[in-house]
Amino acid sequence: MSNALRPASYPGPPFPNEERPGQREAPGIASLAAENVTFAYAGKPVLQEVSLELRRAEWLALLGPNGGGKSTLLRVMAGLLSPQRGRVVLEGRPLAKVSSWLRGQTLAFLPQSGPYPEELTVEEVVRLGRTPHLGLLGREGQADQEAVGWAMEQTQVREFRSRPLSTLSGGERARVMLARSLAAKPKYLLLDEPTAHLDLHHQAEFLCLLSGLRQQGIGVLTVMHDPNLARQADRVAFLAEGRIVAQGEPQEAITQELLSHIYGPMVRVHPVEGQPVVILGGSNSGAQRPRRPD
Ligand SMILES: Nc1ncnc2c1ncn2[C@@H]1O[C@H](COP(=O)(O)OP(=O)(O)OP(=O)(O)O)[C@@H](O)[C@H]1O
Prior knowledge:
Number of helices: 9
CATH architecture: 3-Layer(aba) Sandwich
CATH class: Alpha Beta
Bound molecules: adenosine-5'-triphosphate
Shape: globular
């Protein structure tokens, strides 16, 4: 493993010594859960009766076809969109009743794309991640500086720390935005396609980072498209046409039947050393275009 993105432990105590969701009302329920969530954009239904639970210290990968509602579900679980029916529960408390301040300390959400603060330097962007932890005067303490340094190290962006965001490549920028989310030191991390711009080396490093985050008790929910990466998650869930159509351990959930049903016949699942490996393609003739199921 290279010198960064390693599962180094976070400096200092994991969380400030303050009341947090779950401490009083429902001890032991260490999860962020969507319960029977139904959501529509201006009357257009996107999520229908969706229930999904992200537990502490696990990596849950959310997959499914384009437009299936994954990003919308992530936004609902982050408290950025309010469901028309159902609710999101953070460690036993309805998320809607958790103050935005506490929410910011407990949950971090990384969207699929900008807008990005292009003119800020990398370090300034990562420091923004500490905003929910700063007091009324906005003064940074040693814990904030340590968290920023730790987050930059974990994501291998320290070397760019003085450069404006606008000068970075897509993959470098993606790592900076991930660092900003990490700097908040949340209990739950919601990442929308975090590997989309990463090369293979940084995808591998990202997997190591996730393993370290889980060891520190952080629950991570990632939206992603590649089942071969998602296979390394603790659990996977598939969302299609606004419904969870399968979830479970990757070895059991990623099946030929399911993937053909969701993506069509050109997606093949082969068992390799007991793991489902997904490959794409059929005949080389190119004569037949893949058809998705109706
Ligand atoms: N702000 C919005 N207003 C209206 N419709 C929206 C809005 N955002 C998303 N949608 C629609 O909601 C549906 C679900 O979108 P969403 O982004 O949640 O899907 P997704 O599963 O994340 O897709 P992808 O894999 O392509 O990123 C799509 O049909 C999309 O066009």
